[in-house]
Structure formats: structure tokens, C-alpha cells
Amino acid sequence: MPSQNYIMNWVTVVTRFLGVRLDRENHSTVCPSLPGFLAVAAAEFQPSMASASTSEATCSSFFLRHEFAIRRLHSLTGIVPLGAYMVVHLTTNASLINSTETFQTAVYWIHSLGSLLPIVEWGFIFSPLLFHAIIGVWIAKTGSSNTDRYKLAGNRRYVWQRITGIIAFVYLMFHILHLHGWVHLTPWVELGQKLGFAQFRAYNAASTLAIAMDGYFWPAFYLVGMLSCVYHLANGLWTSGITWGLWISKPAQERATKVCVAFDLVLAVIGTTAWYAAVAADPVVAKAEEDRMYKANLETGMVPESLQKRTQPDAVLGSGTDDVELVPAPGS
To answer: Which CATH number describes the domain made up of 71-300?
Structure first.
């Protein structure tokens, strides 16, 4: 039928763009870009399978048909924007080791985006993170380890990449909940504060971060999570070079290994510096400096009044204004 031929032509164009070829004769999918066993598995899928298993097979077949594109998008999002953001984020936090003023100035600059900040966060951080995590779970679930038979460094890195990926995802979800409460809805934030979450205030950055890192659990949790993220990024940078065909030969891979190890060590030092600065900061001293900076920036118009971004009660704004809803900080 003409309509069926039109649909098949359209599907063929799209699937070829994704690195997949659709066979018109038997309606099977051939994936020349996939490893042999995956190509065979994809080609063996038939629409005439029993209805009880159609749903599961279709889902599996979708990933197999589009694995070429999905794996490259997964690799790309791990480097840009997620990897780039992590380098900037750790470097910004490490600036606290210099002074509260340096760190608070950086946070002021980030929040100067105003209403664009949520768009930037969801468009370039949270959405890519969810995509990268979901596909990463699928890759880890469908992959298999052979370290019990082959004690090779590459095999061990394969296992640790998946272990640190799971740790990193759990860490990031709780990191966002612990400091920001996931979403900036007043009832949700108030509930989170009662449970010890949503503790960060952007205009009291150093002091609220230091308070949030009080005790033993959270510092240990953050250190393990941060180092897992660093390893996952550095090793992922190495594997992405193979995914994108940047270093295929053995000499090229050896050079890439040296570069990625050096990157791993440097970023681990930066991340550990950021962690130590948060753990060692004195919240009382930091808050005094933050209040001074906030008052000065209010007078010059550099920052707006914001009760939500300040620890309450606010020594600078007093009781606040009627048109801004107060979100009390923990212990206020």
C-alpha cells in the first residue's frame, strides 16, 4: 500500500540517521554499528512474537535498534554538560578555602541569573543527569563482568565505573535533597527543613554549608560520593575516547590513560579541598562576613532582597517585607 511504503521510507531515513538499517523484506532490524552478538539479537526480533512478551521485547528492541545513538548521547552528556559542570562546581566550592568572601562572591554571580537559573539548572544539569543515570543503569544491567576469569586492569575499571556510577547517582540525589530540597516549593522546603534537608541558603552560602556538614555522617557521605563522582568522570573520559574513536590504538590509549589519571588526581585534590573547606568552616565567623557583604551589596544594588536565600531571622533585613513569604531556616 502507498501509505505503508511512505511510512517505511520515513522510518528507514530516521533509523539510518541513528546508525540502524531496517530490512523491508522481513521487518527485522539490522544494526551494523553494534557488536556482533547485539546485531544478531536485534535482527532476530520479529513483530509476530506472542502478545504477552511484545511489550518487553519492544522495549528491549528499541534500545538495541538505537544503541549507537543512545550510547553516544550517554557518553556526551557525561562530559558536556555534566562533567564540565562538576569541574566548575568543585572549583567554586574549593574557593571557600581562600575566604568566605571569595566563595560568597562566586555564589552571588551564579544567582545573578535570576529567573533564568531554574532553566539553566533543569536544561543543563538535572535533565542530562537523569538521562545519563537512567541509561547508565540500563548499560550496567545489560553488561556482564568477567573479572573472575580475566584479571585485567581494563576489566576492573569496567566494574568500578559501574559501581561508582551507582554511588554517584545516589550521592547526587541526596546531595541535592540535603542542601536544596530538590524543588523550590515552599511547603516542600518547609517539610524538608523539619527532616534536616534543604539547608543551603545562597546568600549565606558558607555558613549554611558548614552547618549542613556538621557531625560525622554527612562529611563521610560527601567525601565518598565526591570521590566516586571524580573517578567516574575521569574513567568515563577515557572510555568516551574509545566510544568516539579518538584513541583506538594501544599507544594512543596509553597516552590517554596518563592524561586521565592526571585529570583524576587533580580533580580529586580540588574536590577534597572543597570538602575540607566546608567541614572546617566556622559558621559564626562566616555568617558575620556574609551579613557584611549582603548589606553592602544591597546598598549598591548588586543583589536583591530575598528572605528565601537568607538565614532567618535576618539580621540585615529584620522581619522582612510583606510581599515575600518567609521560609524559616532550621533552628530559627
So the answer is: 1.20.1300.10
